[in-house]
Amino acid sequence: xxxxxxxxxxxxxxxxxxxxxxxxxxxxxxxxxxxxxxxxxxxxxxxxxxxxxxxxxxxxxxxxxxxxxxxxxxxxxxxxxxxxxxxxxxxxxxxxxxxxxxxxxxxxxxxxxxxxxxxxxxxxxxxxxxxxxxxxxxxxxxxxxxxxxxxxxxxxxxxxxxxxxxxxxxxxxxxxxxxxxxxxxxxxxxxxxxxxxxxxxxxxxxxxxxxxxxxxxxxxxxxxxxxxxxxxxxxxxxxxxxxxxxxxxxxxxxxxxxxxxxxxxxxxxxxxxxxxxx
Length: 278
Ligand code: C2E
Ligand code: CA
Ligand code: CA
Ligand code: CA
What we know:
Blueprint: H1 6-11, H2 14-36, E1 40-48, E2 53-64, E3 68-70, H3 72-82, H4 85-105, E4 113-117, H5 120-123, H6 128-139, E5 146-151, H7 153-156, H8 159-170, E6 175-181, H9 188-191, E7 198-201, H10 203-206, H11 213-229, E8 232-235, H12 241-249, E9 254-256, H13 266-276
Parallel strand pairs: 2-4, 4-5, 5-6, 6-7, 7-8, 8-9
Antiparallel strand pairs: 1-2, 1-9, 2-3
Helix pairs in contact: 2-3, 4-6, 6-8
């Protein structure tokens, strides 16, 4: 019989205990780091079909004093559980708005959007709309340059709240991208209810292109869907020329991945864009 007593046994599992203890200590370190503002962000270029940099995704980095650079894949889930993701997300938002207004002041990169990742806790927090608009106003950034990446999983619990807040922000010209598209609880019905600008093809559908026929069909379907709904489509995790060629062939209009550039600090990103002459 599967399952019977499974949880009880696992409760005493020393490996589980180690994992729990590890999480607790990381959580405490995370709290301290948020208080002290010890985070960094990297920017990963997003390229259009002409090779022009049209955007960048802002990706959090945590230089931990002992553990070295901790991956967001590790600390974001912990920050989500404890609610720390809200102040952390606000910090990212503030950084993005600051970068956009600095570029505008220097008359630099006026066509480059910044995409930031938004967690469920953040979107569903009471003052999310005011927080986003506040950051933009505080720095005098152009709202149309800011794109919020949301995931499908964030919509399942409270779709109405998500639609309400996204619509309010869209009225202020904030853009939205549906991240990791196709990996969540895909329901096509919400696609037409959400004020989206972009669909983002998940890396899991890109990495085995063009050989994997299923992934090829899914990628094609997403691009066609995007076109029908009037949305831009970007592919993430593009690592090879073959992947790029296939995606171009099916009409994908933007690309992000190691083939073009890894996530990098702001100054390097600025050099990267300048060197491309875009
Ligand atoms: P994501 O939103 O799907 O971000 C894309 C991830 O893919 C990033 O990992 C990026 O470095 C990585 N990546 C980009 N191009 C390639 C490629 O060509 N090949 C491969 N193998 N990977 C590529 P990263 O930076 O480790 O971030 C992991 C996740 O952490 C993100 O996944 C996102 O869900 C979350 N995250 C990062 N920053 C933030 C943030 O500020 N707020 C929130 N809520 N989540 C964040
Ligand atoms: Ca993302
Ligand atoms: Ca993604
Ligand atoms: Ca992904």
